[in-house]
Amino acid sequence: MPEKGRLRLYLSSLRLGRWPRSLAIFPGVVAVLIVRPESYPYGLMRLDSLLKVMLAFGLTWAVSTANYIINEITDAPFDAFHPGKRHRPLVQKEISWKILMLLWLILVFLSSVLAFLFFRPDFMLALASLLIAGALYNVKPVRVKDIPYLDSTLESANNPIRFLIGWFVIETAFPPFTLLLCWWAFGNFLMVGKRVAEKKFLSPEESSGYRISLKKYTIPGLIRFMGFNGVLFLSMFSLFALRFRLKILLYALPLIIFYLVIFMVKSVQDRDTAEEPEKLLRNPFFALYTVFLACIFILAVLLR
Known about the structure:
2 domains; mainly alpha; Tetracycline Repressor, domain 2
């Protein structure tokens, strides 16, 4: 195979297209300006502040990519049972897992050095937590990915961890617990939707071979767990809005509930959307609706 073709296979295994998930650090940055504005009176307009935030995003993306490499390697025997993932280069033995591990080492080393040079220990700990969570999720003997309900719960822990990464770019004090739990529940809502799609659209042989935890799941049980996480998210979100007097967010709750309902319906109807939620943003209506909700949030902050 030509070297350019092989390089493309390695790049596809890094799943660089999932960079939007690392945008989850930005709510952490914005939250500091809402919760503790006195600790950062100049906002984010200074060049050094903007550069640190962008570097934090790059480091988060790099560590997330390192986690995807571990996932690619440890999941290869299971991906062989998935109708789409069985065509991944590592499953087809078109690339070497040893080279992927070398790329993992490079990403982890560079991320660690840059974090040490430019950030405080609390930021470094949050970044390391993202790497540790990836190992616990994917690597035996723990491999939480194989344990029903704990699998989505740990996978969605990446959300509050990324939130903390963004938060610790600016702040040293710990954020409100309601914010972390809110962000965690929202991530778990999405991850459970992913499992609903896998349970519904994969055959019993495919699902049991691809994801061991799917053997013990039922679709009604998953939908109930999805609903529980949706309610938990809305409850923590409401408590946060009440505590910091963001009244407009309370008025917008029906719009947010509608947003969650759209995804719940899509997860039952569309496997691709549930497995990679960011694909839903390609839908013009959903993308505009997401921007609309973001504008409401900004307005709530400005007018509180």
